[in-house]
Amino acid sequence: MSAIEVVPFAPALGAVIRGVDLSQPLSDAEFATIRQAFHDHGVIFFRDQHLSPEQHLAFARRWAPIDINRFFKAVPGHPEIAEVRKEPEQRSNIGGGWHTDHSYDAAPAMGSLLLAREVPPAGGDTLFANMAAAFEALSPGLQRTLEGLRAVHSSRHVFGEKTGYAAREDTGDRIGNRAAATQDVVHPVVIRHPDTGRRTLYVNQAFTLHFEGWTKAESEPLLRMLYEHASRPEFSCRFDWQEGSMAFWDNRATWHYALNDYHGHRRVMHRITVQGVPLAA
Predict the structure, then answer these.
(1) What CA–CA distance (Å, rounded) separates 25 from 30?
(2) pLDDT for 208-221, tens place per residue?
(3) Are 42 and 250 in contact (CB under 8 A)?
(4) Residues with Cβ < 8 Å from 10, sequence gap 6 or more?
(5) What is the DSSP string of 172-214?
(6) Residues with active-site annotation
(7) What is the reported pTM?
(8) If you ran DSSP here, which 8-state letter would residue 73 be given?
């Protein structure tokens, strides 16, 4: 019998996985337990996982092929691992706003596995929010309206040549390949989760531009209302990092937000994203 224990982390979402050493191969039964927790809770947390890059990659590949991020600087010698870093003298962090990774891709990443390598003495927590719960709390009338909509997502204004991170003087050593930020994509505003079938709100403040067939001005009031609604505390949780902590979140079901409250301290994380599939209503 597996010794793995799944402990709910917060009422809205999240679970801590105990009794597992991810540096060692997992049995099929152990992996099935972890996979079910991922689907049930949206984000799963591990503590004290002091993994080599190869072990980090091996666990990620158990889920799906690696989805290499085009814009983050990679860990030296490991192009499949993105380095999420902030130095003591830098003011801007990476991921400092509610978003879901890779929503600007035609097949958005299934999930992201973020491993803490170096953390500040305090601060640097990450917030997560449950987009299925946020959708289910909307009125039936608004749910029906949203189910008939599609939205345009883009990387241009975040990772492009002269906007987003490029406009911040201290991100040049962390974000690159800006010329690749050229694609726009359309996704349903409400998706059927590919694995659970649960209806999930799929827009986010970082990468969603407007509803398909609507102008940005027309889209803004409804999008703003959805962003304010979905970021309410009752749909979220807050994870405090320790060296060796890892979070694995479902990009189809959650948002996340990296808090930037540790100026003067270094924070280094290694992130692997794994491939997903095109999303359907």
Answers:
(1) 10
(2) 999 999 999 999 99
(3) yes
(4) 236, 237, 238
(5) TTTB--GGG---EEEEESEEE-TTT--EEE---TTTEEEETTS
(6) 99, 101, 256, 271
(7) 0.94
(8) P
